[in-house]
Amino acid sequence: MATTIHEPPQIVKAPPGNGGWRNLVPSEGSPRAVQYAPPPSSTAIWVVLFSITMTFAAFTSALIVRQGSSLDWRHFTLPSILYGNTAVLLASSATLEMARRRVASFMGGARSQVGSPARWLYVTLGLGLLFVAGQYAAWLQLKGEGFYLATNPSSSFFYVLTAAHALHVMGGLGGMVNVLRKLGQSRLRRSTLDATSHYWHFMGGLWVYLLLLLWMKL
Amino acid sequence: MHDMSAHAAQHHAPPTSFIRKHVFSLDHKVIGKQYYGLALIAVFAGMVLSWLMRIHLAWGAAPIPGLELLSKNGAPAGVITPEYYLQLMTMHATIMVFFVLTTAPFAAFGNFFLPIQVGAEDMPFPHFNMMSFWVTFTAFLVLMASFFVPDGPTLGGWTQYAPLSAVGKVAGPGQGTGVILWAASIAIFCVGQLLGSLNFITTTLDLRVKGMSLMRLPLSAWGWFITSCMGLTAFAVLMPACILLILDHVAGTSFFVPSNLVLNDQLQPHSGGSTLLWQHLFWFFGHPEVYIAIVPGMGIVSHVLITSMRRPMLSHRVLIYSMGALAVLSYMVYGHHMFVSGMNPVSSLAFSFPTLMITIPSTIIVLIWIGSLYGSKLRITAASLFALGFVSMFVSGGVSGFFLAQPSIDIMLHATYFVVGHFHMVMGVAAMFGIFSGTYFWFPKMTGRMMNETLGKIHFWLSFVGTYCIFMPFHYLGMAGNVRRYSAFVDDYTMRLIPVHKFITVAAIATGCAQFIFLYNLIHSRFKGKPAPDNPWEATSLEWSTPTTPPPHNNFGDKLPVVYHDPYQYGVKSSTGDYVMQASPEQVATPHEEK
User: Fold this and answer.
1) Environment class of B318 (CB within 10 Å of its CB; exposed 0-12, middle 13-18, buried 19+)
2) From A53, A161, B84, B134, which residue has the greatest number of CB atoms within 10 Å?
């Protein structure tokens, strides 16, 4: 997929104005004249991340209560591929950060970046897909050892937690494709890129947390 | 690439096709009306179900003509079986709690008026907003579909306690496919509410117009904002719980089903699950849900009362902080629903204490309402009457909460009609009165026509007296030991309570019929009502500053308003009368600026 490179636009920064929780002082004049206000996506991403945190907190508490109240809990060794997947996901966070900086400087008018604003985004997208494929391979590995979804509560939680996380990662991949599409059309907003980046880094952190949880509990 | 202002970012062109204008609309006002329409359908469906239950309780052997068409097995020859009674009860509660009490005061009015009250052109994510409604509508269809599956809907109650909700059809009619559809519906509903909460929070924080500080938001906007924060937390927990419940059904997992469970002489193929786990997950959502239903109503009736009193509340800030305290405390009290679950008595005390604490902000709110009403020259309208009715119901239903908050008393009253009376008054009817108050108040702005005030007042008095006749005797029944959810009376002492049930049934049918006055008024006024002026109640907040009534596509036309005042500048001397609108630059003689 080719990316059309357009002339970097100039960003006009004006003092904070209409709307936003930072503005508490009424003043006169037409609000139409105000050119900058905090973009809603910069708030929305934290709302989304909070909601996801609550969902996984619910899963976590379910796991802890379920394990604590039963005698049928069977421990098993986590599929080794998970550690490789972890490295892939963390690497994708690093490549995304490089992409974000390059795109940001491109958007700020740095002509030296004009040739490659999207390259690292494609790398991140590829690593994200590799992670999901790796998770699928982990399920196959576990299945090969005789642990299915209903075999034991420990395997049930393994499949539920990893599948829920993988679904959220796929949502992040969708966001990445959206960023690439908008970048190609020169319609990308800085706030959209930042929100996608925050989400992706959160997915990495969440996975590390889940891996530790699964390692300790399973 | 270009950076845009927050307001320009959520602007979208007016739709031209019928589908984009009325069906898959991005306009928050249309979406608000769609939510209202969904709630209207749901409330009448829920009301008919309650009539069927009431008729069965009063005259158990009496056939109900035509009911066998809905369920041949559940109502053979029109007589409701005990199992079908429970199925009707479950659907009544689920429909009312999720698709009426959550949908109408929060999603319907909030969608229509929150962006306007903050001065925005729309929600920041209109596509998510549209999805929010259609996802909720899908959830409703999935739930209603359970009426038409072979065993009918689930009979497990809106709480769906495990293990009977997790083992399949062996637990009774509707406990197979019915539960799966119920859990799927609620999980889908959660997605819709999360999308809605995302929009509500970002609208309130990021799209406020120039001069609109947080403390200048009207109390109704505060109610929606606080509710959206609660919804974000509560629905994010209920959704995974429903997913785990579905997996116990379809994948054979054992999250909620314990070992060695024998039902109908069949050993269940599950092991080690925790029945209490479901209760913890459910009630972590379930108790905040009570406040998700009632806090928007608190905001709406405060807004209506202030406009009718022509003066602000005794303390705008304290009322907001108290609503916020309710939201925070609502997450710390859920264990009081589980006092009889065998929990450690120390845990009971730990949950009892914050439950009693939560009465403090509730009482402060009520005292602010009553103190503000004292000595005011209240304009008696249908909207203000229903707002007063809300206060009355909230107090009457809330008082019984003091008793239920104490484990020693709750153990006696748990699962009796006392609890049913309590939550129907404090959560159900109070929230309904909030919806009615909002409808009579905002109908002119939503449709451009006035509702008939006389019919509105008749509707109020019949509803007010009727609901007291229905739900006050419930407390008596509970204290007499009448257990809830039983479809028949078999013991000597409960047989003596049947006349009370007959009285309640007559009251329920009469009060339900009174709602058709409202329905007639709503539909007739929509098409034949008197044209509404832009500001019929002489109110001050931004929804009454729109250039047209109903508001244009982008709410404020070519120029966004600038806010100069606190939201409730009443009782002042101005060029317009005894009030100054928020968007008016006019300096007032005695501004109500709360420090």
Assistant:
1) middle
2) B84
pLDDT confidence of A37, banded at 50, 70, 90? low
Interface test with B, best of A25, A46, A54 (most B CBs within 10 A): A54
In a domain, A1, yes or no: no
Residue B471 in this model has a pLDDT that exceeds 60: yes
What is the CATH code for B23-580? 1.20.210.10
CATH number for position A161? 1.20.120.80
pLDDT (average), residues B415-424: 95
Q: Which residues constitute the domain of residue A86?
A: 40-217
Mean pLDDT rounded to a whole number for chain B: 93
Q: Answer whether residue A211 is part of any domain.
A: yes
Q: Do B6 and A39 touch (CB under 8 A)?
A: yes
Gap from A31 CA to chain B (nearest CA, Å):
6
Q: Which amino acid is at B376?
A: S
Look up the ipTM and state it: 0.91
- Helix (H/G/I), strand (E/B), else coil: B4: coil
Query: Does A8 map to a domain?
Result: no
Q: CB distance from A3 to chain B under 8 Å? A: no
What pLDDT score does A9 carry?
A: 41
**E strand or H helix that includes residue B266:** strand B266-267
CB contact (8 A) between residue B239 and residue A55: yes
Res. A7 pLDDT band, cuts 50 70 90: very low
Q: Is the pLDDT of residue A27 over 90?
A: no
Judged by a CB distance cut-off of 8 A, whether residue A37 touches chain B is: yes
Which residues, in sequence order, are CB contacts of B109 under 8 Å at separation 6+? B32, B36, B220, B224, B296, B300, B435, B438, B442
The tokens describing A102, both together, are 């390059």
Domain boundaries, chain B: 23-580
Q: What is the pLDDT of residue B217?
A: 96
Q: How sure is the predictor about B533, in pLDDT bands with cuts at 50, 70 and 90?
A: very high
3-state secondary structure of B121: coil
